[in-house]
Structures are given as structure tokens and as C-alpha cells.
Amino acid sequence: MSRLLVVAFTAFVLAGLGLAGSAKASVVSVSFVGTIETQPAGGIYLDTYGYFGAPGSDITGKKITGSYTYDTSKCPIVSYNPSGDLCGGSNADFMSVWATINRVTITASTSTIDPSTGGSFGEIIFGGGCAAPSDTFASVTSYGNNNNVSYGLCATQSFVSGVTINAPITLDPTQVQGVVITLPDGSNAETIYFAAVVPEPGSAALFGAFLSMTLLFSARAKRLLRK
């Protein structure tokens, strides 16, 4: 999707709904991991334009690591209650979005200049639209000077206007997630669908469990030696 279409969509929301609201600003950072699925119509996913390796290579089943960060104090939040919130801006430090596959990372950030437009732009849309009615749909898009990266995500949190957009989300592993990668002018679009992976206990948690068991067995051994 080109920046022009995003601006047009924003104008449509403002004109059609005409409801503006303010919310407490927040810096939001989210990271997630997923597995690239087969295409909805069946078949493998090809990295047609070579964003993450050789053009035409099969990336089905590959791991995708995604992340984004944005600062809602850098953009006006438009609330069209109770359906959703929208926040868009072009401040240099407003937002950045990343996607990593095959150890190759694509970055789109409003800190860079898009040569096709002479500027940069980012947009976040939160609201309904997921197959699971209780989920929140999150669209997070950033346009940079090398690539545009746009995520369409279904989060386990229920949507609350002015609140959900200002907080990290957790991806729903039962729902299909997606990312679109394009060149700055919107061409060479690749749409990739993936399933979110439920995080496993971190190494710190595992180490803590191991340490607890070690101390437990040590205490039992000392009691046995005293007998």
C-alpha cells in the first residue's frame, strides 16, 4: 500500500467519523516470533523479490522475528469509539518496524527519508476485525527510505479505546498473522502469513527452576548425611 493510500484512508476516517479524542501518550515496544505458514490457497511461500535471500527461494516453515516501537506522543490519536483508534505521523523518532527471516532484517523507520515522497510516514490502527471477536486487530505500518513494512496482527487483548493502542500486545497463536514488505513506492509487494509462537520460559526462568531443584536436593542430602 502506498503512502498516498494511507493518507487517503486517514482522511476518510476523519471525515466519515469525525470523532477525535486524546489519550495518555506512551512509548510502546513489541517483539514476537512466528512460523511462516503455507499460503491460504495452499502451496509454498516464495521470497519472490529476494527480500530475505535469493529471489524465488522457499521460505515456508521458516522462523520470522518481528518487532516494532512507536511513541504516541509524536502523533495525534483519533478515536472512533467504540470501533478503533488511529495514530499517524511523520516525526523523525515516531516509529520503527522490523522483520527478520533467514537472519536478514528489513527495517522501516520514520527516522529515514523516503526518496519517492521526500518524507517519511508511519501509522497505527487498533480495533476490531479479527476472526476471534474478543481479539484486537492491530495494523502497524512504517514507510522508510529502503522498504515499507506493514503488520496485520490479531492480539489476545480486547480493544479499549485510548488504552490498547498505548500498551504492548500479545499475539493470538490461534489466529493468522501477516506482514507486507514493499519498496518505498509500494511496488514489489510480498505478503507473508505466519502463526505466532507461544513464548517458552526464558533462560532466566529455567535457570531459576534448576537452581531451586539443586538447592532442594542439596538440603535433602545434608539431612541424610546427618542421620
What's the arrangement of secondary structure elements?
Layout: H1 3-17, E1 27-36, E2 46-47, E3 57-58, E4 63-71, E5 77-80, E6 84-89, E7 95-101, E8 104-109, E9 121-127, E10 136-143, E11 148-155, E12 176-182, E13 190-196, H2 203-226
Antiparallel strand pairs: 1-4, 1-13, 2-3, 4-7, 5-6, 6-9, 7-8, 9-10, 10-11, 11-12, 12-13
Shape field = globular
Mean pLDDT: 76
SSE succession? HEEEEEEEEEEEEEH
The percent range for helix content is 10-25%
Q: How can the largest sheet be summarized?
A: 11 strands, antiparallel
| Overall number of domains | 2
Low-confidence stretches: 1-22, 201-226
**Beginning-to-end CA distance, first to last residue:** 75 Å
**Largest beta sheet: strand ordering:** 5-6-9-10-11-12-13-1-4-7-8
How much beta, percentage-wise? 35-45%
Question: What is the total tally of β strands?
Answer: 13
| Number of helices, counting only DSSP H or I runs of 4 residues or more | 2
What is the C-alpha radius of gyration, as a whole number of Å?
21 Å
Structural class: alpha+beta
